[in-house]
């Protein structure tokens, strides 16, 4: 196995997967963010300007997804067991690494999505730095990790399990890209629905613009006391839809790109 070639494949395929899903389904993500905003859906922009903030995703999506898959598959060379626990731990660790790139672009994106002003992405970035310094770009990092680890713990073992079972059923060594994508769509939809409360807390922490840091626990308590338990499932429909369709696009783009790279190196 050529490790350098494999790393290049993971980087290219991960970048293609991240860009494909984030750019194609961006409006659904915007609607989900506005539904979860403390301002309410209409005051956050409603259905207007649903592509606001997309530039931030274009910058961060490719390297974030590339770093995720590189870490995930490199982990398979270390932890070689084919088990649900192995898949879950590899995916969780990969998310922690990928979020080093993903969180700064995510916070800029979500503030753009939930703002009715015409602030540019650079203006939003300057305001974050002015108010909270460099660490302001990582506000919500721990909350994002609290969401992504359970999500990956659920999604990737189910995806790997479904792929293995489907391949055995079809009498093949592995699934075709579109078959893997269907498995990813099922796994992503289920994981998205289950982890929606964590996503709501993460969104609120990232949208909070005060000087004082808002922790996940304090934000959870504030939401529960002021708005009730039902609010934790705000945006569950667009989030599940986004992850269902997005899971298909994401895993298809990854598997197809990975297969394509083998033709060149």
Rough outline? globular
Order of helices and strands: HHHHHHHHHH
CATH architecture verdict: Alpha/alpha barrel
Kindly report the average pLDDT value: 89
- Can you give the helix content as a percent range? over 70%
- Profile the largest sheet: none
CATH superfamily: Mitochondrial carrier domain
Secondary structure elements and pairings:
Blueprint: H1 3-24, H2 26-36, H3 54-78, H4 84-113, H5 121-132, H6 141-170, H7 177-194, H8 196-207, H9 216-227, H10 236-261
Helix pairs in contact: 1-3, 1-10, 2-10, 3-4, 4-5, 4-6, 6-7, 6-8, 7-10, 8-9
Pfam families: Mito_carr
Membrane topology: Multi-pass membrane protein
Main location: mitochondrion
Molecular structure report:
Pfam families: Mito_carr. By secondary structure, this protein is mainly α. It has one domain: Alpha/alpha barrel (Mitochondrial carrier fold). The protein has helices spanning 3-24, 26-36, 54-78, 84-113, 121-132, 141-170, 177-194, 196-207, 216-227, 236-261. Helix 8 (196-207) crosses helix 9. It is globular and about 55 Å long.
């Amino acid at each position: 196995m050529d490790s350098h070639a494999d790393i290049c494949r993971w980087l290219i395929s991960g970048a293609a997967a991240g860009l494909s899903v984030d750019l194609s389904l961006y409006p659904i993500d915007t609607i989900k963010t506005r539904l979860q905003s403390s301002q309410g859906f209409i005051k956050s922009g409603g259905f207007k300007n649903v592509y606001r903030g997309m530039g931030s995703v274009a910058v961060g999506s490719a390297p974030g997804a590339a770093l995720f898959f590189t870490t995930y598959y490199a982990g398979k060379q270390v932890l070689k067991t084919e088990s649900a626990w192995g898949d879950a731990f590899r995916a969780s660790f990969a998310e922690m690494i990928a979020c080093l790139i993903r969180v700064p672009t995510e916070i800029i994106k979500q503030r753009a999505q939930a703002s009715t002003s015409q602030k540019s992405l650079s203006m939003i970035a300057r305001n974050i730095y002015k108010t909270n310094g460099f660490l302001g770009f990582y506000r919500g990092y721990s909350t994002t990790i609290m969401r992504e680890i359970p999500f990956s713990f659920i999604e990737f073992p189910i995806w790997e399990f479904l792929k293995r079972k489907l391949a055995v059923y079809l009498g093949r060594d592995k699934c075709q890209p579109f078959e893997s994508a269907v498995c990813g769509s099922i796994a992503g939809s289920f994981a998205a629905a289950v982890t929606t409360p964590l996503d709501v807390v993460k969104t609120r922490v990232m949208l909070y613009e005060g000087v004082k840091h808002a922790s996940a626990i304090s934000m959870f308590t504030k939401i529960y006391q002021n708005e009730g338990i039902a609010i934790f499932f705000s945006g569950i429909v667009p989030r599940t839809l986004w992850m269902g369709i997005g899971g298909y696009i994401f895993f298809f783009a990854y598997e197809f790109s990975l297969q394509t790279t083998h033709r060149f190196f």
